[in-house]
Amino acid sequence: MLIIFDLDDTLIDTSGSLTPHLLERALKKMVDGGLQVKNFSTALYILKTLDKKTASSEETLKLFLAYTRADVKLLEIGLKEMNELPPQIQVKPIMGAIALLQELRKSHQLVLVTAGSVIFQKAKWENAGIDSKVFSKIAIATNGVKKIYYEQILREFHAKPAETIVIGDRVKKDLKPAKDLGCLTIHMKWGRGRLAEGTSGVIDYAISNLNEIQEILMRKL
Ligand SMILES: [Mg+2]
User: How far is the CA of 7 from the centre of ligand 1 (A)?
Assistant: First the structure.
């Protein structure tokens, strides 16, 4: 089987171990840049609460700045903080991720397709202790759109879509394009992906523990 993994909130716990720190840093920088907040802790609480309901940190910051009637130029300052790994932060792998990748690579081809900036994505997987050598290929969709990468990978690996599994937390961004190509999909219910939107016909399997992938593979083979 060809198994294509997403990174954030699939192999690494971005929403749990990283996002809260980034939101705090973004808020601090925006305050330094002139954002007026009565109480920093309350503002941070609002920011974190908003972030649980939005599709991206950009949307969170936009909503927050609109809510506080702040200057929109602060968005750029905040967004810059959301896309850099602070040196003292430890990104945690999702439970079981490292061992699972080592195990799966013995009998499958593994590929990583992740959306974001090259430097930031690489910094996160390295920090979390994910060994990039387990992947036969790594593709970073800097524009956030994964379908073209899935197509390229299917061609490159001469893989049949029906024998290709795509695993990710985002139904629309990770799984819908994979399902459109005929791949099998596993929804990792983690982080933002817990709020599964428009799931009908897109998800073949849903898991909340990565080790369930082994059971799914066993049933497929
Ligand atoms: Mg993700």
Answer: 6
